[in-house]
Amino acid sequence: MRFRAKIVDLACLNHFSRVINTIAKLAKTCTLRLTVSKLYFILSDKVANGGVSMWCELCQGNFFDEFQMEGVAAEHNEIYLELVPDNLSRALKTAQSAKAVKIKLTNKHCPCLRVAVELKEEVASGMLLLWSILLVSIYLPVLKTMKSVVERMKNLSNSIVIEANLSGEMNLKIETDLVSVTTHFKDLGNPPWASEDGCQSSAQGRDLENMAEARIDIKKLQQLLAGQQVNPTKALCNIVSKRIVHFILLHEDVSLQYFIPALA
Amino acid sequence: MPLSAQPPANGEPYVLAASLDNARHLSSLLRAVHFQDHATCFATANGLRVTVEDAKCIQANAFIQAEIFQEFAVQEESVTFRINLSVLLDCLTIFGTSSLPGTSTALRMCYRGYGYPLMLFLEEGGVVTVCKINTQEPDELLDFDFCSTKVVNKIILQSEGLREAFAELDMTSEVLQITMSPDKPYFRLSTFGNAGSAHLDYPKDSDLMEAFHCNQTQTNRYKISLLKPSTKALALSCKVSIRTDAQGFLSLQYMIRNEDGQICFVEYYCCPDEDITEAEL
């Protein structure tokens, strides 16, 4: 994974800062999703009851003069980060009359967004610590089986825990006072990770058996699965532990993506 | 400490352990008695009996004998617990209810005894689901005291003859009236609904009638809302025996053949709605 970007235009910088300030007011933490052309700030804090999630979408071309991104895999050219927008906002405050602001993803000791502000006279830089991200990408099991299981679980509980690891294992779990049910899927396969230097994939050195998990609204999952009339060519999901589950369903000419935020 | 809380003498941790290659053998029978959320399970070396009651007037029992299971081991004389039947059915059918040819869900059921949850392990196509369902103190059950010596009237019918009648019962009628008699009309089902009364007669020499033993003319009424759930058992069955005693208590026994051709029974007992036993129609 690699990311480096640069803003030189003052107006763009101020605009970007204002966006970050707004986001900082709305949520303590957020998930940042980077693609080749866009930045998404996904707010999974409950903005209103019912788990409504919000995201803010920016076209990188409107802000950055330079923008280079290489995601976790060629077929899945995206990067997920979790950050505290307030920290980024404060870093950008120092850049109010800067010549340029450079943002880079590094992983010397742990994943970090490095914000370097080039002032007229001196260069100041700061490091924004990122939470160590637990992100697992896994292929979904046969949708028909997943559909049946989730349908039944929906009768028993309002929320479901979906967890998966890099050993191709996924569990669906519900637990209430009356009953607990866990369905274990094995040998699902994980999409290949690009192993680059710079920012290594978070899998390096991490136990392959570690589960990323998220508790989500079971109705939302059931609706997503019920909507799949035809089997997709490829179906996978990204679980950002305790934050969000991102489903990608690829058909021949259509790709469908769903975000289901984690419940508090 | 009650006996059932002590671990069994031979060191086996489960007082009830059973295996079934096809969970549908159990789930389809339980659906036939699923008209309330709660059921009482009673297991002995002979097999499993699941009882559901309502309004202190109706009782349904599903019997799954030990021979149906690939393994059925009970460590005590009997094991009893109350369980949420809706939850149990959702777990048994976790992989879906459609019976695709060649696919079936394998089941292993384990129970450690009083106070412990019922554990289910279900497997289909390499996917395993583990369920833990809380159990409760068993209820005291009604005893209809229905034995063959007290039976006044008895008929055995082929289920296909009754299926349509029961499926189309006039539910605007409060009662289902059953008349059994050695004389005409022999066996009559009647309803009294908003549109009027409807009568369905089955002559004693009908092809559908497998046995006819009526000694006395009896007319009894039963709350139709209580009997309607028995339609599920009727739908699964090939034969049904209908018996009444001197008080007008009704026993319906359904003979059900499962996918492998094995025989199981479901029975419904029902109290009469009014104390009407007419000597003459």
Provide structural commentary.
The complex is a heterodimer of chains A (264) and B (281). Chain A has 264 residues and is α+β, with helices and mostly antiparallel strands. Chain A contains four helices and 17 strands. In chain A, the strands form four sheets. Chain A has a five-stranded antiparallel β-sheet with strand order 5-1-7-8-9. In chain A, helix 3 (143-156) runs antiparallel to helix 4. Chain A is elongated and about 65 Å long. Mean pLDDT of chain A is 82; it is low at 194-205. By secondary structure, chain B is mainly beta. Chain B contains five helices and 19 strands. Chain B has helices at 24-31, 85-92, 159-167, 224-227, 230-236; strands at 16-20, 38-44, 47-54, 58-65, 71-74, 79-84, 106-111, 118-124, 127-133, 135-136, 151-158, 175-180, 187-193, 196-202, 209-214, 218-223, 237-245, 250-257, 263-270. The longest helix of chain B has 9 residues, at 159-167. The model of chain B is unreliable at 1-8 and 275-281 (pLDDT under 50). Chains A and B meet through helix 3 and strand 13 of A and helix 2 and strand 9 of B.
Mean pLDDT of chain B: 90
Tally the helices of chain A: 4
What structural class do you assign from the helix and strand content of chain B? mainly beta
The greatest inter-chain interface is formed by:
A-B, 22 and 20 residues
Give the strand order of the largest sheet of chain B, numbering strands 1, 2, ... along the chain. 10-6-2-3-4-19-18-17-11-15
Gross morphology of chain A: elongated
Order of helices and strands of chain B: EHEEEEEHEEEEEHEEEEEHHEEE
Helix and strand sequence of chain A? EHEEEEEHEEEEHEEEEHEEE
Please compute the radius of gyration of chain A using only Cα atoms.
20 Å
> What fraction, in percent, of the residue positions of chain B are helical?
10-25%
Main location (chain B): nucleus
Protein name (chain B): Cell cycle checkpoint protein RAD1
InterPro entries (chain B): Cell_cycle_checkpoint_Rad1 (IPR003011), DNA_clamp_sf (IPR046938), Rad1_Rec1_Rad17 (IPR003021)
Pfam family, one (chain B): Rad1
